[in-house]
Amino acid sequence: MSSKILDYIAKFVKLDEEEAHLFCNCFKEVKVKKRQLIVQPNFIAKHRNYILKGAFRAYVIGDEGQDHTINIAIDDWWITDYNSYIYQQPATLFVVALEDSTVLQIDYEKELSLKKQNHKFETFFRIIAERGLAFQQRRLLSNLTQSAEERYEHFVSNYPQIVQRVPQYALASYLGMTTEFLSRIRNKRISKKS
Amino acid sequence: MSSKILDYIAKFVKLDEEEAHLFCNCFKEVKVKKRQLIVQPNFIAKHRNYILKGAFRAYVIGDEGQDHTINIAIDDWWITDYNSYIYQQPATLFVVALEDSTVLQIDYEKELSLKKQNHKFETFFRIIAERGLAFQQRRLLSNLTQSAEERYEHFVSNYPQIVQRVPQYALASYLGMTTEFLSRIRNKRISKKS
DNA sequence: ACTAGATCAACAAAATTTCTTAAACTACTT
DNA sequence: AAGTAGTTTAAGAAATTTTGTTGATCTAGT
Questions:
Q1: How many CB contacts within 8 angstroms connect chain A with chain B?
Q2: CA A79 → CA A18, A55, A74, A106, distances in Å?
Q3: Domain ranges of chain A
Q4: Quick check: A175 and A163 in contact, CB under 8 A?
Q5: pLDDT tens profile B132-181
Q6: Most exposed: A103, A194, B24, B68, by fewest CB within 10 Å?
Q7: Which CATH architecture has domain B3-145?
Q8: CB of B40 within 8 Å of any CB in chain A?
C-alpha cells in the first residue's frame, strides 16, 4: 500500500520489516474533496496528515474577518493545526483542501503509542518536529526582514511547484500581502523578463 | 432576539417568561456560508440546528462515491446527523449549507439539561422527535411505493417552496433518482401544462 | 417487446471564483 | 514636500466550476 510514506520515513530512520508494517498500519488513507475542511475551529484536530497527493491551506479568520494563511502544503508535506493536535485542544485554524487530495492520517493516540514503544519512531517524530520548527523560523524571519517582493521572489525560487499549483489569493495571504499587490509584482516580473 | 424559535416552541408547549428566557439562552445564532459543512463524517455532531433562514442538505457518500441525500431542510426546520447527535458518536453524514444561512444551535449538554430540569422541555423535544420520525416514515413509504414521477409530483405539491430553492441535483438525489431523469420529468410536465 | 429508470457523453447556461487594473489613500522615509 | 511600499475599494475580464439539458445506449422487470 503506502510505500510512499515508508520511503519518506526511510530518509530519517531505518526500519525493519515489522516496524515498517507497524508504522504503516497506523495510517488511514483518506480522500478529501476540494474545499473540504480537515480541521475546523472548535473541533480538536485528531490527526496529523501526510499529504500523499493534493494541496492544503491552513488559515485563521481574524475577528474582523481577515484571512491569514498560516501554511500551505502539497504532496509529501505534513499539515494539521499543531497547537490543537499536540495539546489535543480545540483548534483555532481551518485546514482546507485546495484541490481533490489524498492524505494519510495518523491519530493522536496511535502516534503516542508509536513514540512510546520504539525509540526510532520517537526519533522520527522529533526530526519532523524540528524541521517544522526550523521552517517556521525561516518563514518568520523572512516576513520580518524582507519586502513583499523579496518574499515572493524567495518563495518562487524555493517552491516553484507550489506557486503554480495554489490559487494566488492563498499565496498572497501566505506571503502577507494583498492579492492585488501580488498581482502587480507578478506583472512587473513578466515585463522585466521579456 | 430570536422570537422566532419562541413562536415555534409555543406551538407545542406554553412557556412562562422565565422558561422562555432559559430556552432561548441555550441557543447560539450562527451564520453559515453556502457550501460550508456543519456536520462532517468522523466528527461528532455537537449541535441540533434550527434553521432561522437558509437551506441545508444532509447526505452520505457511499463507498463507491454515490451521493445519497438523506434530508433537505429550509427555514423553520431542524437539521443535524441525529445518529451522531443523539448518541454522541462520530457522524457518518455531511450536512452542508445550500445557501448562506443562519441557524440557532443548541448543544447536546444544554439540551440534556433542559430536558432534565423541566417537563415542558422534555415534552417539546419528544414532540419534535415524534414528528421527525413520522416524517421519515412517510418518506420511506413513498420511496417504496411510488414511482419517480409520483414522488416528484408529491414533493412539489407538499413543498413547493423547497423545489424552487434547492438545486436540482439535491432534489433528484433526495427523491432517489438521477438528475437526468428528474430533468426529463420536469420537461414532460412543462409541455403537458402548456 | 414495453416500461421505468440508469448510465454515459457532450454540451449549454449560469454562477462563482480568481485575477487584473485603476484610482485614491496611508504610513514611512528621505 | 515628495517618493516608496503597500492597502483599500471598485469594477470588470477571464477562468473555472457548478448546474441543468439532451440524446443515445443499456438493463431489469413485466
A1: 9
A2: 26, 10, 9, 11
A3: 3-145, 148-194
A4: no
A5: 998 988 888 888 889 999 999 999 999 999 999 999 999 999 999 999 99
A6: A194
A7: Sandwich (2.60)
A8: yes
